[in-house]
Structures are given as structure tokens and as C-alpha cells.
Amino acid sequence: MSPVFTREGWKALRASWLILAVALAAGATVVYGSHWYGVKEKQDSIVAARRLQDARSRLDNARRERDNLNESADMFRTLLARGLLEREHRLDLVEKVNTLRTRHQLFSLDYEIAPQRTLQLPGNRVFPSVDVLASRVKLRAKGLHEGDLLGFIDELSRSPQGFYPVDQCTLRRMPGAPDDLRAHVEADCTLEWITLRDKASSHG
Fold first, then answer.
1. By CB atoms within 10 Å of each CB, which of 37, 54, 160, 180 scores lowest?
2. Spatial contact of 93 and 111, defined as CB atoms under 8 Å apart
3. Same domain assignment for residues 108 and 10
4. Integer Cα distance of 196 and 199 in angstroms
């Protein structure tokens, strides 16, 4: 029998065996610790990246909300300046139309203002704080030239006070010699007189 595997040999190498066992255990611990640390670092990196992405998303959302508020405030001031948040003042519209008739030298002007109604928006869209109202305005005007009628309609639709988008407009030539000093063009137009109503005040 080899002297290493005798009882005396085991006793003589006991310290070496212990050192080897400790070294193997330490090596295994180091390998396991390195693996665990690597996994933890990877997980921490993923968590940190997610937190950074979440922080960036919150920052982007905050910036968008700020920009939307600024745009909404600017739009609100514009609507206030144009009188869209005021009640309809039909006498003001009558005065405006008659002033424009004189300015554009129309021969005749007839108009009809329908009762105010809630305007149906595309996609049945609604706003949380305001109701969108509209009154249909039908106009029939006669003028010497097309330019007179077009100028009248354009100036009314672009009025800085109020909002009057043109729904439809038809121009027709009337019989008669071009050099006659009478109406040669007739226009039938439909506009929407749009105003906004604060829901809080309407329920108050």
C-alpha cells in the first residue's frame, strides 16, 4: 500500500487536505459570488434604465402638458378677444352686416338668422368646460360685380369679432348688359355664427 494512503500518511497530510478543502470552498464561493454579483449588476442596470425611462417619460409628459396649457391659454385669450365666449348679440350682427353692405356697395341684402342650437362636431366630440353653439345665417345679396360680393363674404367670415365660417355659397350671373348700373351677380350663402358657452355659468 502506498504510504500516502496509510493511516500515518493521512495524518501527515491532514493539514494539506484541510487547506485544499478550504481552497476549493473559497474558490466555489468566489465563483458563485462573481456570478451572483454579475446577475445583480445586470438586474440593477435594467431597473436603473427603466427608472430613467420612466423619469424621461414623466418629464416629456410634463412638458407636453405645459405646452398644451400655454396653447390653451393663448387660444382662450384669442376666443375672448373675438367675443366667442359672449352671448349672441343679434343687433350687433345686423349692424355689422349693414356696414359691410355699404362698404362693398351691394344693391340688396336679405338675411335670416336661425335659432341658436348646439353644434354637432365631427366624431360627436365634446369639450368638458364649454358648449359649442351655432346659429345658421342665410344671406342673399346682389352686387354689380363678383368682387363686391366676394369681398363682402370674405370680410364677414374673417371678422375679428365673432366667428362666421362659410358653409356654402353660390354665385349666379343675372341677365342684363355688363355696362348697366344695376345688379349683375347674385349670391346665396350660408354661414354658421359660432359662439361658446361656459358650462359652469349655464348651470349656475
1. 160
2. no
3. no
4. 9
| pLDDT tens digits for range 58-79 | 766 666 656 554 555 555 565 6
Give CA–CA dist 192/93, Å, rounded: 12
Q: Which of 45, 78, 111 is the last residue of a domain?
A: 78
Q: Is the C-alpha dihedral spanning 113, 117, 118, 119 positive or negative?
A: negative
Are residues 59 and 119 located together in one domain of the fold? Answer: no
DSSP string, 31-96: HHHHHHHHHHHHHHHHHHHHHHHHHHHHHHHHHHHHHHHHHHHHHHHHHHHTTTTSPP-HHHHHHH
17 occurs within a structural domain: yes
Which residues on adjacent β-strands are paired with residue 133?
A: 118, 195
pLDDT in tens, 112-121: 999 988 888 7
d(CA 204, CA 131): 14
> What is this structure's pTM?
0.56
How many angstroms separate the Cα of 137 from the Cα of each of 41, 70, 82, 89? 71, 33, 18, 14
The residues pairing with 3 across neighbouring beta strands, listed in sequence order, are none
Grid cell for residue 128: 368638458
